[in-house]
What we know:
A: eight-stranded mixed beta sheet; C: 378 residues; two-stranded antiparallel ribbon; 2% strand; globular
Amino acid sequence: MSSNPLLSVTNLETVFHTDEGTVYAVDGVSFDVDQGETVCIVGESGSGKSVTTESITRILQMPPGEIAGGEIIFDGQNVTEMSDDEIRKIRGGRISHVFQNPQSALNPVYTVGAQIREAIQAHQDLSKDAARERAIELLDEVGIPEAASRVDDYPHEFSGGMKQRAIIAMALACEPDLLIADEPTTALDVTIESQILELLMDLQEEFGMSIIFVTHDLGVVAEIADRVIVMYAGKVMERADVYDLYDSPAHPYTRALLNCLPGASGTIEPIGGTLPSVTNPPDGCRFADRCEYAIDDCFVGDQPEFFQATGPDHEVSCIHYHDMYDSSVVLEDTAGEGTATTARETTAGAHSEAGGDRL
Amino acid sequence: MSMAWYIGRRCLWALLASFIILSVTFGFLAASPNPTASTVAFDAAQEGGDPEEAVETYEQTRGEDRPLMEQYTDFMIDMYTLNWGDSFNYNADVMTVIADSWVYSAAIVIPSTIVAVLIGFGVGLYSANNQYTKTDYAATFGAFFGISVPNFWLAIMLILIFGVVLEWFPTSYDTTVDYWSLEHAYQLVLPFFVLTTAAVASQMRYARAETLEYVNAEWTKTARAKGVSEWRIMFRHIFRPATPVLATILVADFVGIIFASAYVIEVIFGIPGLGLVSYNAIINMDTPLVLATTLVPVIIAILGNLLQDILYTVLDPRITYEGRN
Amino acid sequence: MATDTSPDRIEIGQIDWEEYETGRFNFDRKTVGSTLSLLAVGLLWLYDFLFVAERHPVLEQDLILFELSLNPNNVDWLFGLTLVALFWYVVVPLYQNKRMTMYYWSKFKQNTAAIWSLGFLAIIFVMGTVGPLIIGHPEPNWGNPNAPPVFFGGEWAHPFGTHRTGEDILEVTITGAQVSLQVGLIATLFSIILASVVGATAAFSGGWIDEVLMRFVDLLMTFPTFFLIVLLVYIYGGSLFLLIVILAFTGWGGTARLVRSEALQRSEESYIQAAEAAGAGKAYIIRRHILPNVSNTIITAATLIIPVMILTEAVLAFLGFGDPNIWSWGRIISDGRNHLATAWWVATIPGIFLFFTVLSFNFLGDALRDALDPRHET
């Protein structure tokens, strides 16, 4: 990690005020993103990954949402304290978003060209014609054939993959420094997915931008990530370089996720149990209830702070990595079997909310 | 299928609809116990004449003794050539009566619709965008009251308070006043207010309901992420996608509610518009005029429906001309 | 899951198929009860129609506090039928599915306006059903015209004042409640029955049946209902019975469309296909699978139609197109309109009741929609 990251999130806390109580969607998340690197945020549904990214540019619904604490520094500026006008300039201009569902991310009553123009003209003082020209250029760059004629088509005239490309074009209109992609390929076919991923990597190289890529798909992570952030129940469990993560996954949750992949260690093992309560989080480590290696100390106090796993750039929130305990219990457990904790697996046996990896 | 084809098809349907409606109306009239005929019989009996004979003569003069098919064809031809007969009471061609009276109806209906749409849609849109705020609750509450208040009762209450007790407004309509004068406008304040309240309330509710789903739409979130200003988001990404449905509701509302409401309001305030004319026609058993004044809103409704279909396809590019999805 | 402690496996031969067989006719308590009670009402009506002279009461009984004199007219019988139907098809299912009812209730409870509305409507219901039995018809009383209400110089004997022909306004209000209740409930019930049948059939049959039915609905909805009713009343005269019939037969269009679109969505679901694969006929599927699942939408639509029916009747009565023999709210307001200066209470007080009744139904309908229709959640 460099000493001058592009984006620095420190102790972010985002909550939602609902009829059933306050939902602690993001409960103390910290991570950095450097210039030009691709950081993947991994976790199951409900882990708070989308809310985290939406908090960066404050596009989540507030109310009922609220950024209750923490600090986000983007290129030296404190984004959490910015005024509405200031953050609007950042949105699309310096940080762009791509969302999961290309079907509904484009307004059906306006042409694709018009919407790309809108992205351009929100930040740049271009005439309508100049903006349109730029839009055609962008569509071309993302690989849409016959861009000049397609620019005046409506979204429903594009296929799913093409729509997502157009959306990426829209996101890149003002050459942002950071692109936040929230599961952009989850809704697409596998073949289209690999095309989109390739596109993103090419564009990243060309523009030198950073990417935050949110996903629950560890296969994708392996392909594109430089670094990985593993989230669970609103907190970060592990932060690592991608190679370190796959070579020696440190956090029991990460190990369990990897074990969910078919082809990994022979058997697929679902993670027993369910997510902890969002309105009333338990004491201790959030994952303790479902963890194979949990010991009594895991259930008390706060979520453990970060300790080093295999190296200075590999951090994990698990007390087994504290000096007092023996981390080899986790790290060297090649067979994937826990110590005396199989009995902890609840008989509900619900498959983890990993959403059915499509690999 | 192109736009022209589609419009052609809808026009044909409109024509067919009018045909069916007119035929059904004829059926009702033909199958009904003729109120005028019974009056004639009653009168004849009173004066010592033969009621049956009187009815026969009466029917002869009115051409009601012809075979049904002939009556039907004559009726339909008359209807389509706008030969709607003469009013008993006014002793004038029905069309003339309508032409004279519609201006009075228009004086409140048109401004009311415009205001209702502007305020209704505006407040509805604002409400949807700022859900759960105090303004939203207040507006929603207001809308409930607006659509629940019986128009005629509200009119009477207003007359009671502002006309009788406070004496700010006249309690009845003065027809001698010049149409385009300020005095005339002043007289119309109360009726306009009553008519608009109901219309605003329902437009507001619809606007809020329809635009609400777009407030949380993915493309709205995308637009916000692009850095687009809130105002632009509100109009282009929340309001505009709702316009096909809203335009439809607007047209339907215009005929249904406004005409029906205007009817009652004209009767209460004594404004000599179509509603009052129709009302008097019923009281006086002036069948040609009753028929005519009932059919005018029906025709407007059919035309409105046509307009609504066309508007819908124009406003929503996803619709092909095969039909609504 | 593999960790389940499985009980002993059930052998095929052990299953008692008799238990599951229902056959063509369902003989459970609800069907028997509802059929019998509906038949009972029908037979009683027949008795009244055939054997009891027009102005004679069917039942006369001195109940000390008041004299009970029951002379139901056709609308009253229809109302009785409606109440019985509502009991068996709304109240009883709610009671039978207690858990579901409690769940909906807990969501419904959160809406305070709706709770107040429910309370108010309960009062109106009692007023409209029990009230007329106690007070009979409001009688003119020339000795006491235009008496003001109790806090404005009047007396407790006539808490809402009297009409210029002496009728007690409270009695008129009670009778008006009955009329509104009758119109609202009867017209709505028949309207939604018609709408549900048409809508579900159209959705499920598809093809030209669907096309024809929907064209018909289009036509019906094009015709502005108000003017249609005015025309019909002009031609056939205004009796409450006729009015209710007309309202029922003109007001079902919108609901039919709603039912159709809901049913269309349901018919795509797998359990329908499963039923078809098992050989079930169309009518059966509509009755047993589609309609129960669409019922939430229907109920919500119904509660929002009731106030429209009530208002329409009120407007017509106000204009003089209603039933001249019955004191409805519309009629009394119309009567009171020309005497605002001398007797403002005649038009005002019944109007307040009308206003709040309609308002309550609207609040109720809205709250029901929030509680029952999850897709409407914002």
